[in-house]
Amino acid sequence: MTTTWIAAHRTAVIDPDEDFALFQSRGFTDQTVRQTLRLAGGGEAVRITLSNRYGKKPLEIGGAHVRGDGIDAPLTFDGTGTVTIPAGGDLVSDPVEEPVAAGQVLTVGLYLPGDTGLTTFSAVPYDSGWAAPGDQLTARTLRDAEEVPTGHFGIGADVRAPEGTRIAVAFGDSWIEGAATTPGLDNSFPSQLGRRLPRGWIVNQGVSGNRLLTDEIGEHLLARVDRDVLAVPGVSHVLIHIGLNDLGLPGHIAFPEPGELPTADALIAGLTALADRLHAAGLTVVGSTIGPYRGTVYDGYDSEAGQAVRRAVNAWLLGEEHPFDGILDVAAAVADPAEPDRIREEFDSGDGLHVNDVGAKAIAEAAELSLLRL
């Protein structure tokens, strides 16, 4: 059987030095950092990916290790256990020649002997990580460890799977990334949808706070296409949710003044350009309606102007003129029937902007599996 490398876990990353920061990164000095990930699919071997994309200086890795069910092995890079990732660079480990399965949780440990500076990071990791002093790579239990709630170095994984294995990339904002779902349970709506698929799987490239048209939290979606979709091995389908932050963040940032919002025509043009770019690469593209957010607790985020634009864009997405191969009606799956601009109470995470685990499940169950025929 011929095999090839297929992405089984991805973590989209943001720059710690952005002008407007919803989330705070951090650095590490002479510390061991452990972070976990869950594989969306399995194969006969696994390799780990790391990123220093937004680092201001080279990142020195003094050692790396991976643990999981049936795996307890050092990670090497071109045969050596130590490596330096240049500023702006990414790195892929040598293969760990052990079989891995869908749903398997791996813990990746990195010993960072120098001062990393603020690191390339993500706001919503699979689960909380840990940092401990010194080189504790082989320790079963970290001594004097501190919890790290954010993800660092864009840790991902590829698996060696049968050639022809196809996957989807979930691409977009916090509703894709799974903000407000329970850490460690892999309950974002793309993950729950992925567990429904009869073959293939979904990897997550969501960025909380991300926008379609404007750099703010992470590069805007159109700028992320090459790196976060086209470069993902095995991708054949893309599932998109975007637009909330284009409508809400301008008002939140400007509060108590009103923010300058994009028009419905601008968002429609951006979504069309995104679909065209992905279609040009031969991918199947599934769009989704913009989720509800009436009454969110974030000052200035909810405005009448933004709600009007959202309704207009959603009407276009549910019509006959959009360029997508299919539409997942995210809004209808979680909206309050009595007030469709608001999340149903049982699906609300508590902030009026994000869904909880049950809400994410409702979105996953609303998807027609024929949209993701992998």
Taken as a percent bin, the fraction of beta residues is 25-35%
CATH superfamily of the largest domain: SGNH hydrolase
Output the strand order for the largest sheet: 6-5-9-2-11-12
The amount of helix comes to 10-25%
- Oligomerization state of this entry? single chain
List segments where confidence is low: pLDDT < 50 over at least 5 consecutive residues.
none
The major β-sheet equals: 6 strands, antiparallel
Total of DSSP H or I helical runs spanning 4+ residues: 8
Protein structure class: alpha+beta
End-to-end span in angstroms?
Answer: 19 Å
The overall pLDDT, averaged over residues, is 97
> Total number of β-strand segments?
21
The helix/strand series, from N terminus to C terminus, equals EEEEEEEEEEEEEEEHHEHEHHEHEHEEH
| CATH class division of the largest domain | Alpha Beta
Number of separate domains: 2
Radius of gyration: 20 Å
User: What do we call the CATH topology of the largest domain?
Assistant: Rossmann fold
What's the CATH architecture name of the largest domain? 3-Layer(aba) Sandwich
3D shape: globular
InterPro entries: GDSL_Rv0518-like (IPR053140), SGNH_hydro (IPR013830), SGNH_hydro_sf (IPR036514)
Protein name: GDSL family lipase
Pfam families: Lipase_GDSL_2 (PF13472)
Domain SGNH hydrolase-type esterase: 170-361
